[in-house]
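Suppose you are handed a protein chain with no further information: no name, no annotation, nothing but its sequence. What can you learn? This example shows the usual starting point.
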Amino acid sequence: MKALHFGAGNIGRGFIGKLLADAHAELTFADVNQTVLDALNQRKSYQVHVVGEQARIEHVNNVSAVNSGSEEAVSLIAEADIVTTAVGPQILGKIAGTIAKGLIKRHQQGNTQPLNIIACENMVRGTSQFKQHIFDALPQDEQTWVEQHIGFVDSAVDRIVPPAEAGSNDPLEVTVETFSEWIVDQTQFKGEPPVIPGMELTDNLMAFVERKLFTLNTGHAITAYLGQRANLLTIRDAILDPAIRSVVKGAMEESGAVLIKRYGFEADKHAAYINKILTRFENPYLHDDVERVGRQPLRKLGAGDRLIKPLLGTLEYNLPHANLVQGIAAAMCYRSEQDPQAKEWGELLEKQGPKAALVLVSGLPADSDVVEETVAVYNSMQ
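A reasonable first move is to predict its three-dimensional structure. Written in structure tokens, the prediction is:
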């Protein structure tokens, strides 16, 4: 199996790329970071530090790397069996042109073997959105052939991968938690799905996408935003604070009630899933900064993301949402000099005021009770 993975960052190396390599794929990373590319090509291997109760070092071997905008990347797409990404939602549009060129070359070379593309991003149906970017870059006469031969497979991914320890000079060093989950929509593959241990197939992906978004992502973000307000530095510090923990757990229970209504999850199993996530946040071996987890507040306050989407679900089913409102108000308080979105959000707040700014970013109706509730909580936090 020939695999090309876009994104040689921590998630690319520590999660998706590692699973592909463990499945004995002929794996090439595509990235723009020349230091990382050079190190991968020089060493052909790297180590993954898995931290938790059973800490261990795992080795990833027989890898290579190319620049993600290069002709080499285009040629690899023409021959690959699987293409995956872990680049961040905002970068998908930037690599779509390379993918489109590779698919055209594949057609020109007469390669009719199925190719499946999987965007492994923190977003709902990320591959379907990526497909749209790719089709925007494809000539009309190529689109029919691509529809016939290329699978665009949506997935849900879950693994906490913090930045490398400060002071490390190794560009390939990566630390991951023990837990990982990669669930893919088996109905979208062209040909037989590849056998990759650690990749789970489902015919009901949205249930798992929303379970992860409404629980892990919602809880992680709210922990970060409340943690920053309490002047705590890490996710672990924040979740061990009883007041913060109470709101975070309450918000995950509120979003969980939506999932139970919508998808029929069993209440006791979902409660166990929430507790598992709280335990992951407590992991003493993961030094995850609240500022890093909270970044990009404009995206995280968007209608389809981890705060507003579960809130909309509580409104749809007429369910409680007081803790989610606390989390959204805390997100509105987030500030970071390192994050362009945080600066943009701060300017928007100053210019428009909290109510208009929240309505603009979240899409919530301006005359809704929940906007009034959230703004009242936000004002009380000032």
